Amino acid sequence: MDRRSFLLGTSTLALSQLLFGCGGNNQRQLKVQLLKGSIPGQVVNQFHKSLQQQVQLKFAPVERIQDLFQQLQNWQQKPKASDEKGWSRFIPFRQGQKMADADLVTLGDYWLKAAIEQKLIQPLQEVQGNQLKQWSALDERWKQLVTRNEQGNLDTQGKVWGAPYRWGSTMIVYNRDKLEKLGWTPKDWSDLWRDGVQQRISLLNQPREVIGLVLKKLGKSYNTENLDQIADLAKELQTLNQQVKFYSSNHYLEPLIMGDTWLAVGWSSDVLQVLGRYPQLAAVIPQSGTAIWADMWVRPAGITAGTLSDQWIDFCWQPSTAKQISALTKSNSPISTNIAASDIQEPLWSLLESNRAVFDKSEFLLPLPPSTIKQYESLFAKMKV
């Protein structure tokens, strides 16, 4: 599952590598590969200034979480003999790299199971040793999300595999002018089935997201395992498909901006970046609950745990830092930040300051058995015919 950054603001890291500190041979380093746009540059600068000793920070933004996951895989592949010779050893993203080139990497919660199963990452053992001082400030829900067994499944007796630093949700974004002429604006998933918006909706090209929102409409869970037991599910999907103009996980906002579609289902990381620029657009988090995603720090396998990476995770969890990350990257924080309406422009504030009742009804897309995944994919394929 991919969430791309769309029309990034100037407050976020540029694609080029961001360096703080001189590059002396004996100088301590913290190397981080992160999702582009997920950490403001000034936060890295503040962290550098807060350190008591001279260190070098190397933060390399990467365009997509999928690319970061691929990088984790590349680091664990056995090197080819040809890769150890000549100019090829200088290629930064070459196949067969012996050692991970980052102390921490951004990963989305959806990818966590695969990363654990494939032994691409290692647990954050310092949590058990209480070296992450801000861990206790996390809501239990976030602790549960990253506490997993060796198969990558949730397990209260498992180990801690990630440190969430921001989160968002799936939401409905719509053309305010078009829908006001129809006499209504969306409030919940059931509004996608209304008259007047046939062939005017775009949905994410993701089985878990689309089937999940239909399950939510029916009062069920996004993580339902046996779809055959859900009465009317196929019928609901078929009816919804008649409302849909197209499915896309990358290009659902452009047609909405141009007026070719009137509603779209999308990720907040995309949607909230464009609301301020296009006043005809508005967004809503469905009242019956939605899907939640989280970006987190993970430690590649084979990397020695260092105090600098611990300090960085703790720094991201400090309330003042968490507030900056949330406000400047237009996301929510797993730490209580008490963001005021004056800190964030409308219409973003109401979407970021999540309604606790809606949050409690929302769900992470948790790992499902392979047979269940095939059910979702098969039903989704039939839906789009």
Protein described:
It is found in: Periplasm. Residues 223-250 form a coiled coil. By secondary structure, the protein is an alpha/beta fold. It has two domains: 18-167 and 293-358, 3-Layer(aba) Sandwich (D-Maltodextrin-Binding Protein, domain 2); 169-292 and 360-383, Periplasmic binding protein-like II (D-Maltodextrin-Binding Protein, domain 2), CATH 3.40.190. Helices cover 32% and strands 18% of the residues. It has 14 helices and 14 strands. The strands form two sheets. Strands 1, 2, 3, 4, 5, 8, 9, 10, 11, 12, 13 and 14 form a twelve-stranded mixed beta sheet that branches. It has a two-stranded antiparallel sheet with strand order 6-7. α6 crosses α14. The radius of gyration is 22 Å and the shape is globular. Mean pLDDT is 86; it is low at 4-12 and 87-97.
The overall number of domains is 2
Structural category is alpha/beta
Q: What CATH architecture label of the largest domain applies?
A: 3-Layer(aba) Sandwich
Task: Give the distance, in angstroms, between the N- and C-terminal Cα atoms.
Answer: 22 Å
**CATH H-level homologous superfamily name of the largest domain:** Periplasmic binding protein-like II
Task: List low-confidence stretches.
Answer: 4-12, 87-97
Compute the average pLDDT: 86
Number of strands: 14
Give a short account of the largest sheet.
12 strands, mixed
CATH class identity of the largest domain: Alpha Beta
The helix count comes to 14
Percent of residues in beta strands?
Answer: 15-25%
